[in-house]
Amino acid sequence: KNEVEQSPQNLTAQEGEFITINCSYSVGISALHWLQQHPGGGIVSLFMLSSGKKKHGRLIATINIQEKHSSLHITASHPRDSAVYICAGTGNQFYFGTGTSLTVIP
Amino acid sequence: EAGVAQSPRYKIIEKRQSVAFWCNPISGHATLYWYQQILGQGPKLLIQFQNNGVVDDSQLPKDRFSAERLKGVDSTLKIQPAKLEDSAVYLCASSALEGTNEKLFFGSGTQLSVL
């Protein structure tokens, strides 16, 4: 069983749509990271959360500690948002989800 | 601020050959990670260093993989001999504490193709 589970695995959206990617994690994870990986590119850390909500531009990340669940939202999606979004939990080490491949169509 | 530097960017080798990857973390970052990312999967931790000491290498295939960080700064990861299933992106990351949380910074990775 993975410590971090992500959904959906693949997501296609029309430009302008509101997007949500979900992440569930297990006991022992104290902080949750959202990472972005563009095709052929490196991985960029978007957010690190241990409680509440964070916002950066059109990206919003929330975490519910009681339910062990986090979401990444993208408002007014754009084709340049097309990337793989990875959820990672910090416990004794980093536990990575398998990623969500997002394609935003113009 | 300079990021995590990795080289080479791409490497193509034949099976049974040897290969080495290099990583220079962000200055001052004590923790350094090597990850293997196979296409379509999330990164898998190979080894974690704290300064020049190994913290976790439980998932490193030690019969063929080795890594070192002799001076606690840059690091090398070696595969000898390579197998077809080693084809992947090898990512190096370093981390820093922001308050009580650890933030990861990734290099751009080395894409290895084993033919």
Compute the separation of the termini of chain A in Å.
Answer: 37 Å
Give average pLDDT of chain A, whole number: 90
Helix percent band of chain B = under 10%
Quantity of strands of chain B, as a count? 11
Greatest interface and its residue counts?
A-B, 20 and 22 residues
Largest sheet of chain B: 7 strands, mixed
H-E order of chain A: EEEEEEEEEEE
Find the count of extended strands of chain A (DSSP E, 2+ residues). Answer: 11
Helical residue percent of chain A? under 10%
Global Rg of chain B: 14 Å
| Global mean pLDDT of chain B | 91
Strand content of chain A: over 45%
Q: Structural class, judged by helices and strands of chain A?
A: mainly beta
The biggest sheet of chain A, with number of strands, parallel, antiparallel or mixed sense and barrel status, is:
6 strands, mixed
Poorly predicted ranges of chain A: none
Core attributes:
heterodimer, A: mainly beta, five-stranded antiparallel β-sheet, 59% strand, globular, B: mainly beta, 0% helix
Can you give a write-up of this model?
The complex is a heterodimer of chains A (106) and B (115). Chain A is built from no helices and eleven strands. With 106 residues, chain A is an all-beta fold. In chain A, the strands form two sheets. In chain A, strands 2, 4, 5, 9, 10 and 11 form a six-stranded mixed beta sheet that branches. Chain A has a five-stranded antiparallel beta sheet with strand order 1-3-8-7-6, with no helix packed on it. In chain A, 36% of the residues are buried. Chain B is mainly β and 115 residues long. Chain B contains no helices and eleven strands. Chain B has strands spanning 5-7, 10-13, 19-24, 31-37, 44-50, 53-56, 65-68, 75-79, 88-98, 101-106, 110-114. In chain B, the strands form two sheets. In chain B, strands 2, 4, 5, 6, 9, 10 and 11 form a seven-stranded mixed beta sheet that branches. Chain B is globular, with a radius of gyration of 14 Å. Chain B starts with a strand and ends with a strand. The model of chain B has no long low-confidence stretch (mean pLDDT 91). Chain A binds chain B through residues 31, 33, 35, 41-45, 48, 50, 86, 88, 90, 92-94, 96-99, and chain B through 33, 40-45, 48, 56, 91, 93, 98, 100-109.
